[in-house]
Amino acid sequence: MFDTRTAPYAATLLRVSLGIMFIAHALLKYVVFTLPGTAQFFQSLGLPGFLAYVTFGAELIGGLLILGGVYARWVALALVPILLGATWAHIGNGWVFSAPNGGWEYPAFLVIAAIVMALLGDGKYAIVKSRAA
């Protein structure tokens, strides 16, 4: 049964936590690994280094938009390819994210969370609500 009274609050909780997660991962790339270090990691995977900067920008700006509720469902959907890339980057490390170099369970879960956000909607207190397709 779908509880229409609490669903908007559940969507808000998902939106805020997903937004914070994207911002935290952007800041991790900037502060801890540094952007040049992240670019080197991307290159070690066979990806162009500039994608590290694109990923950083998408995570930071996307996270802020999701957190604030600015077209959050569409921004979450737009960030799914980045999460799929993160899943791909960790696939060889095993399932559990506590494995050396991080497994793929967490990024795979975030793919699902972003899709749920896109399907569920922006929730309460969004600045600019998305319209469903």
Sheet/helix structural class: mainly alpha
Rg:
15 Å
> Into which percentage range does the β-strand content fall?
under 5%
Order of helices and strands: HHHHHH
Helix content: 55-70%
Described by the principal axes of the CA atoms, the overall outline is globular
Please mark out the parts with pLDDT under 50 across 5 or more consecutive residues, or reply none: none
Our measurement of the CA-to-CA distance between the termini, rounded to an integer number of angstroms, reads 23 Å
Average pLDDT rating: 94
Characterize this entry briefly.
The protein is mostly helical and 133 residues long. The chain has helices at 7-32, 35-44, 50-68, 72-78, 80-90, 105-120.
Topology of helices and strands:
Blueprint: H1 7-32, H2 35-44, H3 50-68, H4 72-78, H5 80-90, H6 105-120
Helix pairs in contact: 1-3, 1-6, 2-3, 3-4, 4-6, 5-6
What does this protein look like?
With 133 residues, the chain is an all-alpha fold. It is built from 6 helices and no strands. The chain has one domain. It is 67% helix and 0% strand. Helix 4 packs antiparallel against helix 6.
